[in-house]
Amino acid sequence: METYPIIRPPKGEATLRLIHANPRYSKLNAKARYGDAFPPINQGESTEATTLYVPVDIVIDFFDQRGRLLDYFHYVTEADHTSFLIFGHHRIMLVTIKDK
Is the pTM for the entire model greater than 0.90? Predict the structure, then answer.
């Protein structure tokens, strides 16, 4: 089982880490719909934590190795929050932790 450390964002910003937890796909590609792509993610692994400005409102598209769109998630940053976006079996889950 992998562990994913919680990285505190800079004051007033947010961090996001994508986790690939779907055994149906050995590799996953994720990209902000109108922005940059994340590095490919192997099943059971994650991206590095990415610092995002607040507010940011983005759609993250998930693709298989052949470039087929599998699903998407609409994500809105919140100040002083660390988020984990988990691409799981049959759903995408967002886990968010607010920094004190």
Answer: yes
> 13-53 pLDDT, tens per residue?
999 999 999 999 999 999 999 999 999 999 999 999 999 99
Instruction: Note the pLDDT of residue 1.
Output: 56
Residue by residue, what is the 3-state secondary structure of the chain? CCCCCCCCCCCCCEEEEEEECCCCCCEEEEEECCCCECCCEECCCECCCEEECCCCEEEEEEECCCCCEEEEEEEECCCCEEEEEEECCCCEEEEEEECC
Sequence ranges of the domains in the chain = 24-42+53-98
